[in-house]
Amino acid sequence: MSTDRDTVHSYDAVAAQYAAEAAAMPEWVATEIDAFVAGLGGSGRVLEIGSGGGRDALELEKRGISIRRTDISKGFVELLRDSGFEADLLDPLTDDLADPQRPGTRYDGIWACACLIHVARDDLGTVLRRLAEATRAGGRLHASVREGDGEDVSTHGGAAAPRRYVETYWREPALRSALTDAGWIVSEIRRCVGKPNDWWLSVRASRA
After folding, report:
1. What is the pLDDT of residues 67-116, one digit of tens each?
2. DSSP per-residue string spanning 78-93
3. Alpha carbon 27 to its chain's center
4. How many CB atoms lie within 10 A of CB 171?
5. Residue ranges per domain, the chain?
6. How far is CA 135 from CA 62, 102, 112, in A?
């Protein structure tokens, strides 16, 4: 699997709580949504990896984008379905990425915000290549990962709902190389700050 099982189970256990905590749109993500939608010309069919509580999908739909919501966490998928949205359980490393609503047609874009941090370093190239293969030529990609070195295991929550997340950190040169090797043309990698001392590398790219 592309994602550590304990990480997935942590999200399953706290899906509703996590969605509430992440409901506010960070300024840097709003900026990336603007750029992504502009790159698509204000329309298109997009595969979202790691939909979580659905915050970004709602904003993208407001802008005229058709979204296929997916997540590797069953907890998030059930939360989205309970909220009235179609959502699919999907591991981008191993599962078929084809759009069930448009058989034989590739996506116009991929939205993968703050979720590929949980993909093991050795697997990211494969995930990026599979996403590229599912995207039409010229289609757009937004992806964001934490900036840094190595890997980390972060733990939060309480005894009733402990959380354990395995995260992989990236530097721009290695990330840019992985994207290019996977079939993406990188237009920009921006350094964005979430919380203080929480730096992200935010990718704007198109399918070669």
Report:
1. 999 999 998 999 999 999 999 999 999 999 999 999 999 999 999 999 99
2. HHHHHTT--EEE--TT
3. 17
4. 12
5. 5-207
6. 22, 13, 13
Q: Which CATH class is domain 5-207?
A: alpha beta
CA distance linking residue 97 with residue 47, whole number of Å: 9
Q: What is the Cα gyration radius of the chain?
A: 16
Do residues 47 and 77 lie in contact, with contact meaning Cβ atoms separated by under 8 Å?
no
pLDDT digits (tens, 9 = 90+) for 10-49: 555 555 665 566 667 889 999 999 999 999 999 999 999 9
* DSSP β-ladder status, 199-207 and 45-48: unpaired
Residue 155, pLDDT score: 56
User: Is residue 24 exposed (0-12), middle (13-18) or buried (19+ Cβ within 10 Å)?
Assistant: exposed
